[in-house]
Amino acid sequence: MIGIEWYQSWGWFESFVCVAFASLVVSYLWRVLRVSGQLRLSPSLIFVKIPIRVSYFGLLLIALMGPSFGAGKKTIQAIGKDIYIAVDLSRSMDAGDIVPSRLERVKHELRQLVANLPADRIGLVIFADDAYIQCPLTYDKNALQLFIQTMHSGLLPEGGTDFSAPLSLILERYMASEGQETTNYFAKMAILVSDGEDFGEHTARATAALRNKGVRLLTLGVGTQAGSQILVSGQGFVKDAQGQPVQTRLQKSALIRMAQDTGGQYFELSDQKQQIPELLEAVQAYKGQRLDTRTVDLASNKYLYFLGIALGLIILDAFLIIKVLAI
Known about the structure:
Blueprint: E1 5-6, H1 12-39, H2 46-65, E2 67-69, E3 73-78, E4 80-88, H3 102-115, E5 121-127, E6 131-138, H4 141-149, H5 164-176, E7 186-194, H6 203-212, E8 216-222, E9 228-229, E10 231-232, E11 236-237, E12 247-248, H7 253-261, E13 266-269, H8 276-285, E14 292-297, E15 300-301, H9 303-319
Parallel strand pairs: 4-5, 4-7, 7-8, 8-13
Antiparallel strand pairs: 1-2, 2-15, 3-14, 5-6, 9-12, 10-11
């Protein structure tokens, strides 16, 4: 026997409607019987319309509750992605050439990006000259949003920027998850966000390792060609060894090269380019090669059948006229 599932459960509204309808029917019957008694007419004709009205009322109520039934199978392919977002938290990300600062703008854009990827698992890596997992891969977008919001350059010791650190850490995490049934069908991606200043010596090696494992790397360059000085709250501008203020600029060559080496793409967030929408499209377009095929039961909403019959009865009721009594 095929079970019926209801889109909407029975509640106080449905109960109220039924009670109101029953009250109207009783009131109608009493009025008709009283008038027919005064006119000394047979009231039997009223029972022609009442069954019709009760029937289409019941059908409308059933349609409102949305009955779903029917046997069927459908094969679907579940396509998922695991995405690590690596964010540069070196001092240069505090530069103000992008208002209010490079890092604050990145945080704002990443929150929007994460909100538009509800079906993917996303993790967060923070790095400077070393890298750390700030949030492991998760479907919990609320927790991820909180981790993004709390990022600041003070989370890591002062130092330079080494791209090989986050790339190696991401690869290590992906390799550790290999063979797990829950990750077999997930495409693997990484998004590296930085102003491009790389002082590491092993970036090319780390990028090649990602490529060999099938991890696609997208890079996001943040900053402007003109650049700006780095203001540290309460300490003034960051200065070099000669005591001169440091001028930091977007250096995108390394970011472009890393993306190309893994079959990925380079995007930019600057005074001339705002390519976050393009970055989102690239992430959504990447389907990967590992698919999970599943067979699901189908039960479609059949409210239209009941609604159609009810409308037919309403039309019949409108054209059905009983003489003498005003019904």
